[in-house]
């Protein structure tokens, strides 16, 4: 993943499908936490193709593309579904040194993301995405002990393009705009994780914080809007395990929960998937990580 | 090696383009500087809407341009012009697009800001907005489509009457603009031969602010600041002296009282009704053997302004006055009844809505969202004003002719709101989702009966008046009205008959306004 301390070895390709089930009953209308009986439970399901290729020992290339479906359990609003955004990342491990009882490594990741389809961004909370084209930079530090325990910290900054609505005017953040173009503010995030990785097993717990660097709050009893100041603090965990058989197949399970937020749902998210590693080299040894 | 350098350079270029591009979005409409193609010197003879005559409010004669007092006023303009700040230049540029267009845009913003339904309290009830406590939760008003239509019409009609009165007195007193009297005064807006006393900008600032303060009392600060800025821009630009402005402000405020007096007693206060009255609407429908409309929100929300349209429903609910139609006209123009809720015909209509709900394309969704005009927007009336603004701008109308255009459009839109709401609550017909709860919608279901479609009625009314004003573009306006109408079927919130009957109704309603316009002396 773009934000972890792991690298695929050269000439190997690990890919698979991840299924994610998100749901929330409460959301933050600005800073006010509330339920909405005309939305009920908002469920988002996605199936994402994920692949990471070891270009060489120092550089990994990643690709992600999800199909997303949203649904509200109450009220009349229709479900939405479709292919969302293509994300391409390159991760470069520019430092790896022995330090004490382990290794210290740092990474930079560059990401480009853009919508694959012209989905509507004017139907929140049911829109399937933000519709922005993004360029993101990320810096990650990782310390992995020889006994398998590791600590990881990562911070990212995402530049987002503006988006266009299907309508010629809108009101947000205290202003009426006579245009269809919406200013999408950039996003900052950081992630810290603690985990264990040895042999076929990786397990970790993490905390993430995402802040949108601008944008308005959802007003009282208003609908959410694409450029709202969406902030979220999440806690979660992850387990990935390479099965003894079939060889090179890994099971990945993760979950997270939004503990605090602003203009977002209080989401519980569960992900499960299978990842398979292909070798384009004679050295078919699984040595993911450092 | 060169290949790599080229590759890295192009990636860097793309990244720089995304990262460094200026993302700021201008909120105000980009409008060109108003240069009227005709100053409409005879507008003082055009027919008033509410005033008894354009001379009804007397503007006393000004001091002579040769007087010391006037010369002192000119000197003070020169002093101001010598030290204009960037902010002052920006204000001049903003208002040089024309006060009528700017006030309409300001009003669209106010409507969007106040167009939020009250949130339910913890007992599942919806507190009503209170004009006596406009800053409370919920704010007053809830600028929903009927409220907004009424507001647009009051502001536009009051501006129009005030400007005709201003034109009348301008040509009675014939005092030229400061930049004409004194060549040392720069014309920072377009120079015209229009007499300056009373100042049309000050008239507009006064009439707009006074009417708006009644309609949007919680926005008093913003309204007052905008009005003062408009007067200052007139002064700084060399267009009007302080006495031109004082006379204009007084005239604008006096005209405003004629309109605010009407607004205070036009039936709006009784349009909400009460629980007992709402129950009688259900009974009326069930007594006719029909399924009565019910709110599809949870908890159920009282219907939106049920007594806005109905004529003299009981002693306490007269119905909101129309501008060009009598109570008899409104009842006479009401569309024939919709298919009975239990009929095969209705079942077919429901099936068609369900088909659109299940076969939504991206193109149709774009149309639904283009015309959603729901909570937090300027409403359908504001949407049509926005459409009109581009044609008014392009036509280089004088301020008084621009005011006429907005007055005619918004008078028709208000009458459409009255006529449509009368129809909706007379028939009290359920929405498609009520008859078939499996129907899912691509926009929120409005909280009032289905028959007829408000969008269709509003859009046909506006398109009819716009076609009268700009006949060369009639096809475009009618196409837009049809698209707006069908958007409600595509979104699965209206039956086709709601849309068709609404379009026809809206067109008939606008006929009353067009008939007025044909003989108002402005052609």
Molecular structure report:
Chain A has strands spanning 12-24, 26-29, 32-35, 42-54, 59-72, 80-83, 85-99, 102-115, 134-145, 149-160, 163-164, 170-172, 175-177, 181-182, 187-198, 201-212, 231-242, 249-262, 268-279. Chain A has a 12-stranded antiparallel β-barrel. In chain A, strands 2-3 form a two-stranded antiparallel sheet. The mean pLDDT of chain A is 95. Chain A is built from no helices and 19 strands. Chain B is mainly alpha-helical. Helices cover 57% and strands 0% of the residues of chain B. Classes of the chains: A mainly beta (290), B mainly alpha (523). Chains A and B meet through strand 13 and strand 14 of A and helix 1, helix 4, helix 13 and helix 14 of B.
Derived structural class of chain A: mainly beta
SS element count, helices of chain A:
0
Q: Record the strand order, biggest sheet of chain A.
A: 1-4-5-7-8-9-10-15-16-17-18-19
Q: Which fold name corresponds to the CATH topology of the largest domain in chain B?
A: Vanadium-containing Chloroperoxidase, domain 2
Give the CA-based shape of chain A: elongated
Count the strands of chain A?
A: 19
Identify the most extensive interface between protein chains. Answer: A-B, 42 and 51 residues
The biggest beta sheet of chain B is recorded as: none
CATH architecture classification name of the largest domain in chain B? Orthogonal Bundle
Task: Show unreliable segments of chain B.
Answer: none
CATH class of the largest domain in chain B: Mainly Alpha
How many helix segments of chain B?
19
Order of helices and strands of chain B: HHHHHHHHHHHHHHHHHHH
Oligomer: heterodimer
Shape of chain B: globular
What does the average pLDDT of chain A come to? 95
